[in-house]
Write a structure and sequence with these properties.
Blueprint: E1 8-22, E2 33-48, E3 53-62, E4 70-84, E5 87-94, E6 129-130, E7 135-136, E8 152-164, E9 167-176, E10 188-198, E11 216-232, E12 236-253, E13 256-268, E14 275-276, E15 281-282, E16 289-300, E17 305-316, E18 325-335, E19 341-352, E20 363-374
InterPro entries: Porin_dom_sf, Porin_O/P
Protein name: Outer membrane channel protein
Pfam families: Porin_O_P
Length: 375
């Protein structure tokens, strides 16, 4: 909606509904469960006030099928100051650029949802997730998140440019509130650099698959840190450091396009063994560790179909491996209108290093059918 010579407003929405069937939910009951879930329901309002300043607001009702839902709330609220193509300042509540998946739009995901190891990042809960990122694993779940949950309050300096016709880059550097569970007032610092060959991915957010509309190969590296996020009974205030390296390719191939994405991440919580996460004292070595994921898909343009597969693994630093797990997934997407309207179906199997939550179960299998609309 154009208001004046420089002012315009953009209204959008996103709705993702799912039917979920899983056995051994959480590993504590051994019971199977079937349920319907509103994964995301969002209203978005953005716009340009002048050529120098933009704004964005987004609400959401939704959450995980593990009961971690919520009433309608504001999840994004920031103003962008456009100083130069190499210098945009985002200030307010926004997604910190801690990895490729943390800068990938939830409206342009490939394998139903983000990999479960994405959530080992600060303000995302510091936990592993299963059921296509719908529920948290019991072991190694520190449940550390701020009031915004997933987002963070702060400021991000962002810029992108092309060095040559086939070489592009973008960078992020941010300072945020992070988590203040230790009572100390420390800032969170996040930085990311991404380079692309062939076509650029110039915006703040990426896509998990471009459905044949881009020819690009990307490489990214991210670093995320904050001192004194929580208190350990043995060593006092505990810090947090996360880094990741990722690679992405989306290339025309045969009658369609192939997509490949992989990343390695490392999480350091200062080897805390009795970390107070707000609910009690936990062994953070069951969360601390490293992991990787890989996912691939092929888009048949004439059929509007994309089969995809994925694998991820997390190795905790606990002596007996508690908190470690791996999982594989496979599925199929039919696109009515690209990422604007599609249906996804997928199966996932997660196996933990030790029985879950002291039970005798170590495997969770999930099946999801979801309807996805974004505009």
């Amino acid at each position: 909606m154009k208001i004046g010579d420089e002012t315009e407003i953009d209204l959008g929405f996103r709705l993702q509904t799912q039917f979920i069937s899983w056995d051994n939910k959480g590993g504590t009951t051994g019971d199977s469960e079937q349920l319907f879930n509103v994964r995301r329901a969002r209203l978005r309002l953005g716009g340009k006030v002048t050529k120098w300043m933009n704004f964005f607001l987004q609400t959401e009702k939704g959450g995980g099928a593990d009961g971690s839902g919520y009433d309608m709330r504001l999840i994004d609220a920031f103003v962008t100051l456009n100083l130069h193509p190499l210098a945009h300042i985002y200030m307010g509540e926004n997604m910190a650029p801690a990895g490729r998946q943390h800068t990938t739009s939830s409206g342009a995901l490939m394998a139903i949802d983000r990999p479960g190891i994405t959530n080992y990042n600060l303000t995302w809960g510091l936990n592993g997730r299963f059921g296509f990122n719908n529920a948290s694993l019991t072991d190694g779940n520190l449940a550390l998140s701020n009031d915004e949950s997933v987002r963070d309050n702060g400021a991000t300096l962002f810029g992108s440019s092309s060095v040559a016709e086939m070489f592009h880059f973008k960078y992020y550097f941010g300072v945020y509130d992070g988590i203040q569970a230790s009572g100390e007032d420390k800032e969170r610092y996040t930085a990311r650099l991404q380079v692309n060959l062939f076509d650029a991915e110039p915006g703040y957010y990426n896509s998990s698959t471009y459905l044949g509309k881009k020819r690009t190969v990307g490489l990214g590296v991210s670093y995320d840190t904050q001192d004194d996020i929580a208190t350990d009974a043995v060593q006092g205030a505990t810090g947090y450091t996360w880094y990741s390296v990722d690679v992405f390719a989306d290339l025309p191939l045969g009658p369609g396009a192939a997509t490949l994405e992989a990343a390695y991440s490392d999480l350091d919580l200062d080897d805390a063994t009795q970390l107070n996460d707000g609910t009690g004292s936990q062994n953070a070595l069951e969360t601390q560790g490293n992991g990787w994921y890989a996912q691939a898909g092929y888009y048949f343009e004439s059929l509007k179909l994309q089969p995809w597969v994925g694998y991820e693994k997390w190795e905790s630093d606990a002596a007996d491996g508690t908190g470690g797990w791996d999982g594989w997934k496979a599925g199929l997407t039919y696109f009515f209108d690209g990422h604007n309207a599609n249906i996804k179906a997928g199966y996932e199997s997660v196996k933990t290093e030790q029985p879950i939550g002291g039970s005798n179960e170590d495997t969770i299998n999930s099946f999801i059918v979801g309807f996805y609309i974004t505009y």
